[in-house]
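Contributing new records

If you add data, match the layout below exactly. Sequence lines come first and carry their own label; structure lines follow with theirs. Keep one chain per record. Anything else will be rejected by the validation script.
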Amino acid sequence: MNVYSSNDRARKRNILFGSVIFLKKVERFTIRVESVHEDQGILIGSTKDGKKRIVKGSYQDIFPTDTITISGTAEKNKRLGTHYRLSHYVEEKNQNWMVKRLKYELNKGDKEILRILLHPAQEKQRNNYSKETEEIKRLFQQLLDKGVDEESLATIEQDFLWNYRELLQDVYQLLRYPTVRVEWLDEWITAGKSIGKNETKAFFYAQQLLQEANTQGHFYLPLAIVEKSMQKKGMSIKSIDKNDVFYQEDDKFYLREHYEMETAIAKNIQKRIIEKPKKTFPHTAVEEWERENGFTLAENQKEAVRMALRESFSIVTGGPGVGKTTVCKCITDILGSKYTIKMVAPTGRAAKRAQESTGLDASTAHSLLEYNGIQFRRNETNPIETRVLVIDESSMVDAPLSLALLKAVPRDTIIIFVGDVDQLPSVGPGQILRDLIESNVVPVTRLTEIFRQAADSPIIQCAYTVNNGKVPVITPHPLLEYYVHQKEGLVSQHVLQVAKNLYQDHSPFDVQVLIPMYEGEVGIDNINKHLQEYMHPNAPSVQVGNGELRLGDKVIQTKNDRNKKIYNGDVGIITFISSHQIKVRYQGHDHNTNYSRQEFWQLQLAYAVTVHRAQGSEYAYVVIPMVISYKNMLQKNLFYTAITRTKKKLWIMYQQEAIEQAVRPESVPKRYTGLAGKLKEQLT
């Protein structure tokens, strides 16, 4: 089996820092190639049952009569009609493939190839090549058996195409790929099937450690952790040539590209902090806004506004009930009297909320940066024209997105981060908002005064209790109900009972079950399945992935779609369903959004969603289960974030041990980032 990928470069660009590319549903079929048009990136072939297939993509050394299995997405245009956009392909290892290997890898001429394949005297050499071929096939079959996906194999084979001997002489080179484990290669080498070099093993194992750490939010690992992990595998960090891949700063061990990104963020912010705004506002600006709007700000709020008016880079942070929205409205109203303003948030739902509260035309950060699925079109050479940039829900903004925004706005742009630093950090790497605050060199106002109406709310009281590392006091209240259970099954039953009643009595947009995991009896998949069956037991349905969608289902969009003007996190109701089309009416829209069969995968059931996906949104009625099987997802900031999604009434069903674990301060995973230290060093 030979597997080749046509989107390696895009994949490599986006695997870094955990960014995500959302692709259409991939179809798979086998064809015998009939013609190849390299100049157009098109090949044409037929399946065994005679169906013609046109495939557009990037190929290498594919010729008529080759047999390949295509993985691609269906598209349609006037020139080609229905065709497939190539994701990756599998080439059958037949005689055609053997001829190509002899020609391209072993540099044999045509006459010599014929002699090797046909002459009786060449049987020994022919057998040697066959053994190598079998070894290559077994190695890749081993990777498949261990769980390496076909597209990852596509990348591996593309990188070693017609250079397999080099791979077989040092299989530890495979550790450069995140899905390959060192234990598998040790097993392969111990069995005497290939060889590997210790220095290669150490180099790529350390690289893999740091790449995996990055997917968990870290920018570096402490040297001691790297050394200990390598020692367990019989390796030494001393055998690694630091060169241009690694960078060590004191006891911090980085991949150089991560170090350079963190440094670039720090330098950009440092220059902005030093440069003050050219225009000033009168001391009475805040009081004038109060008179015009019939509103009186607390002194802490006024301090936040004045800071934002005099600084070129600043932060407004605080928990629920402290008036961040009011402060943001005041800031943007006053700045908007002299400057153009752009407001962004990490998700579509958060952007809509920001727009509703400020009256500004808010958008997602990706939309403002004109992300095309591969890269941002807005950058230093094509900057965003604005004098003020407000980043709402900024605790959700990761390091790569932060750097992209910093690069894309002019140096004299006023930047204001607004968010709750105690909520969940970004899914991607870094903890930008926390690092900026903890540097103690960035202008920050922490709003602390909880206003009376909020202070009387049992939900907000519960949130602050959890944030302070304490188990909430179980006091009966009509707006907050606690239920403790001994067994998870009872928690699941109670969640379903309450959720069924809520979904029956209220708009589905006002109700949300928040769960941190997909698996398990009290996991998202199980709860969604039961609620779907209860709400729409006999409705028309279609299979999507391992589940199904039904007419009337509450669904969530899982990618940004600028053409549809629907964004990741938008929630809607299925109003029409067939095997070829789904129509969804999204919250706040007066029209349906259409999905073709190839786009069904973008939709997921949303009766229950993850806390991460709900971040940036609010719901009237929220149900939160907390059970022991959530294990390492029992985190204080996750529990706190879930609670603060509630506007009217909250239900918490829990096991006592689970809720005790969830409020511990040490339950919050540490992220190894160096941004705070770099800023402090540059500005003090």
